[in-house]
Design brief:
Blueprint: H1 25-33, H2 43-46, H3 61-74, H4 87-96, H5 102-115, H6 119-125, H7 127-134, H8 140-157, H9 166-170, H10 177-188, H11 197-206, H12 214-224, H13 230-243
Helix pairs in contact: 4-10, 6-8, 7-8, 11-12, 11-13
Length: about 270
């Protein structure tokens, strides 16, 4: 019997290849542009060199003595520029001078003190009429209220007299540490240091008594100024800051102490 031939069909399998997904052109360009490794950066670029701050040479006692000796020779008896008639009017003038010029205060108080030069007269004048006298001064409404209140307190607590201690003066409405120092110095001859904006600037700029606050400068100046100069020291420094060591354009060319001053930006 003949064998029947049965053809066997070979299973044909098609090799499928996985096509890679197309990379967007922008991404491709970005990858091509991306460096293989981090760019080298110089140490100078990472950590720039900074100059060390210069430290001013400390003042010597002899130099400080020389500074105030020069001030004394030029102006032996300096006077405060606030006009007043007695300790009470001085106290009022200083309270009114906060954030105001001495010239502006003087202009207002010349007529005021003719009618109210004692606490009782100030109370009799009254707050409303007082405002009319001082309305050209900044913050005059608040200041008028404080002057009437401190006048009343002087009568009730101090027999109508200006007290002679810092704590007592500071207890009066509108009076702070600077006010107390001015009154104690000018009215009673105490060796106090009143630090206003001018003294604060001079103390820091010259290096005599650098400090972040007026109290820092006050204590620093009291520590280094010889006792023989303390009575007039704050007036010399105020006048120096007001007329020579100006805030914006200091007049270094006419400064009495320009050869000793530690300010690195002085023009001489």
């Amino acid at each position: 019997m003949a064998c029947q031939y049965i053809p066997v069909m070979a299973k044909i399998t098609r090799k499928t290849t996985v096509r890679k997904s197309a990379v967007p052109k922008k991404e491709a360009r970005a990858k091509a542009a991306k460096p293989k490794g981090p760019a080298k950066t110089s140490l100078k670029a990472i950590k720039p060199r900074t100059a060390k701050p210069r430290t001013a040479k400390p003042w010597t006692p002899a130099e400080i003595h020389e500074v105030f000796a020069r001030f004394r020779r030029a102006n032996p008896e300096p006077k405060g520029e606030l006009e007043h008639l007695n300790p009470f009017t001085l106290l009022v003038a200083v309270v009114l001078s906060a954030q105001a010029t001495d010239a502006g205060v003087n202009k207002a108080t010349r007529e005021l003190f003719q009618v109210a030069d004692t606490p009782q007269k100030m109370l009799d004048l009254g707050e409303e009429r007082l405002r009319e006298y001082i309305k050209t001064i900044g913050l005059y409404r608040t200041k008028a209220k404080n002057v009437i209140a401190l006048s009343a307190k002087l009568l009730t607590d101090f027999g109508g007299e200006v007290p002679r201690t810092r704590a007592e003066i500071e207890s009066l409405p509108g009076a702070g540490r600077k006010t107390a120092n001015v009154v104690l110095n000018m009215a009673f001859g105490e060796h106090t240091m009143a630090v206003d904006t001018h003294v604060f600037r001079v103390g820091n700029r010259t290096g005599l008594a650098p400090g972040k606050t007026p109290l820092d400068v006050e204590l620093g100046l009291e520590k280094v100024i010889p006792a023989e100069f303390m009575l007039h020291a704050h007036h010399w420094l105020i006048l120096h800051g007001r007329y020579t060591c100006l805030a914006r354009k200091p007049r270094c060319e006419v400064c009495l102490i320009n050869d000793l001053c530690r300010w690195p930006e002085k023009t001489v």
